């Protein structure tokens, strides 16, 4: 079971006019994708963004952006520093690794003692 989550890197209140309702209250949010699994947790390099109007609750897609919104977006995008891509292994991974090594070592020992014939 692979679970994905979006972790907020930066949020900014912007005062540009909303293309839908012309209100001056919008929020720009940058997210970074994290993947969780039973064996590892991975931080990916993928950074996504969303601009949402706080009054009409509509998401402003890049097709509807004005020049002012694009400039503000570019400014805040330069300020975002994502966490480095990394993989962190869980205790279950290390337990399975130790069991696999122990099983292989036992097989080699039994083969060398002559108990197991191939």
Which series of helices and strands comes N to C? EEEEHEH
User: Portion of residues in helices?
Assistant: 25-40%
Structural class: alpha+beta
Kindly estimate the percentage of residues that lie in beta strands according to DSSP: 35-45%
Main β-sheet description: 5 strands, antiparallel
Q: What's the number of structural domains? A: 1
Gross geometry: rod-shaped
Radius of gyration in whole Å, from Cα?
A: 25 Å
Separate helix tally: 2
Poorly predicted segments: none
**First CA to last CA: what distance?**
38 Å
Work out the number of β strands: 5
Keywords: Membrane, Transmembrane, Transmembrane helix
Transmembrane segments: 91-111
Description:
The chain is rod-shaped and about 85 Å long. It has helices spanning 67-79, 91-113; strands at 3-14, 26-36, 40-53, 59-60, 86-89. The protein has one domain (3-90). It contains 2 helices and 5 strands; from the N terminus they run E-E-E-E-H-E-H. It is α+β, with helices and mostly antiparallel strands.
List the helices and strands and how they pair.
Blueprint: E1 3-14, E2 26-36, E3 40-53, E4 59-60, H1 67-79, E5 86-89, H2 91-113
Antiparallel strand pairs: 1-2, 2-3, 3-4, 3-5
């Amino acid at each position: 079971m692979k679970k994905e989550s979006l972790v907020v890197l930066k949020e900014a209140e912007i005062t540009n006019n909303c293309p839908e309702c012309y209100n001056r209250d919008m929020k720009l949010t940058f997210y970074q994708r994290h993947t969780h699994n039973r064996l590892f947790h991975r931080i990916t390099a993928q950074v996504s963004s969303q601009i949402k109007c706080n009054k009409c609750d509509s998401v402003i897609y890049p097709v509807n952006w004005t020049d002012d919104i694009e400039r503000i977006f570019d400014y805040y995008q330069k300020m975002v520093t994502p966490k480095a891509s990394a993989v962190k292994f869980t205790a279950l991974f290390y337990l399975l690794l130790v069991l696999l090594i122990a099983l292989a070592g036992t097989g080699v020992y039994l083969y060398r003692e002559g108990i197991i014939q191939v």
